[in-house]
Write a structure and sequence with these properties.
348 residues, alpha+beta, Multidrug efflux transporter AcrB TolC docking domain, DN and DC subdomains, Multidrug efflux transporter AcrB transmembrane fold, 3 domains, two-stranded antiparallel sheet, 10 strands, 15% strand
């Protein structure tokens, strides 16, 4: 725990003075190692040595003294002034069953002085230590948890595990659920578009702009050294609503042209020409609106920079790619629809 505490202090973005360990090594301890070979040669057992130490330092009942008026218990222990001195071990002797002489205890043991915890907390009937930490303003919690997990994995021995609690645990749970919520949002978007166009195919055509935008947003976030924080996920949700309007503008116009009798190629070609300006204008409005977030203006802006980077990067990337990708996918989807979902005639 002390080594991990030291490693956490070295992580950038974490305030060193806020790192606290629940296990404090503030209790001096004397660690005794029995010379078992010498003790065995003298016929002295480890239990006899332990009993001698217990009677001398912990105090123990050895006998009872009875008088005419009362009874007294006899407690054995060394003088108080010697109880906290390691050298007092030299005052203790044990009788050897082999030689019958008194053997100094210090000749049977080796000792070292070390620090130990005053108490060891337990969790689920196992020894546990809690390390708390704080962050500098603007440092994402996701960055801190990832860095701590990497440090813990590199130094923790086998059999020792760790987990986050408190605010860090709640953050991890929320991040895990955001991925599922993102998929649910895309599915609901598909349902709405399917109802709007009365088609199973063309909602896919519109939603194909999402992978391009998400890739551009995450690439921008990575290029500027951002982390996938809660604000970055919010940026992905914003992209779902913003970027699909490009596909809606083109596909809606192409379907309108096709209903007028034009073939699929001419319909999507006209859509690209006519809808280019509205797509460019709405895209620039969204990019310029998110630019202050990406540049970090405003109070506590550093935490919202990932949101701005995801939105700006995704929109810029999608504005360039959508005009090439969406028409191609539209033509491909039209072939699939004509083959598997042919339009009904009046006789049908």
């Amino acid at each position: 725990a002390q080594q991990l505490e030291k490693e956490i202090r070295s992580i950038g973005g974490i305030t060193p003075w806020a790192v606290q360990n629940s296990v404090k090594l503030n209790m001096p301890r004397l660690k005794l190692m029995i010379d078992r070979d010498r003790a065995s040669a003298l016929g002295i057992t480890a239990a006899a040595i332990e009993q001698t130490l217990a009677l001398s330092y912990a105090g123990g009942y050895v006998a009872q003294f009875t008088t005419d008026q009362d009874q007294y218990q006899v407690i054995s222990e060394i003088n108080k002034e010697h109880q906290y001195l390691p050298e007092s071990i030299g005052l203790l002797h044990l009788r050897s069953p082999v030689t019958g002489t008194l053997v100094p205890l210090k000749s049977l043991v080796n000792w070292t002085e070390e620090a130990s915890p005053q108490n060891v907390p337990h969790a689920q009937q196992m020894e546990a230590a809690t390390i708390s930490f704080g962050l500098y303003p603007g440092v994402p919690l996701g960055y801190a948890t990832t860095a701590i997990e990497a440090k813990a994995a590199s130094i923790m021995p086998p059999g020792v595990t760790g987990k986050f609690v408190g605010e860090a645990l709640e953050f991890q749970k929320s991040i895990a659920s955001l991925g599922i919520l993102l998929l649910v949002a895309i599915f609901l978007k598909y349902i709405v578009l399917g109802i709007l166009y009365e088609s199973y195919i063309h909602p896919f055509t519109i939603l194909t702009t999402l992978p391009v935008a998400v890739f551009g947003g995450l690439l921008t976030l990575l290029a500027f050294g951002g982390v996938l924080s809660l604000y970055a996920y919010i940026g992905l949700f914003v992209l779902i609503g913003l970027i699909t309007k490009n596909g809606i503008l083109m596909v809606d116009f192409a379907l309108q042209r096709k209903s007028e009798g034009k073939n699929s190629f001419d319909a999507i070609y006209d859509a690209c020409l006519v809808r280019f300006r509205p797509i460019l204008m709405t895209g620039l409005c969204a990019i310029l609106g998110a630019m202050p977030l990406a540049l970090g203006y405003g109070a506590d802006s550093s935490s919202r920079i990932p949101l701005g980077l995801v939105v700006v990067g995704g929109m810029v990337f999608a504005q360039i790619i959508t005009l090439f990708v969406t028409p191609s996918i539209y033509l491909y989807m039209e072939k699939i629809q004509e083959r598997f979902f042919p339009p009904r005639t009046d006789l049908e």
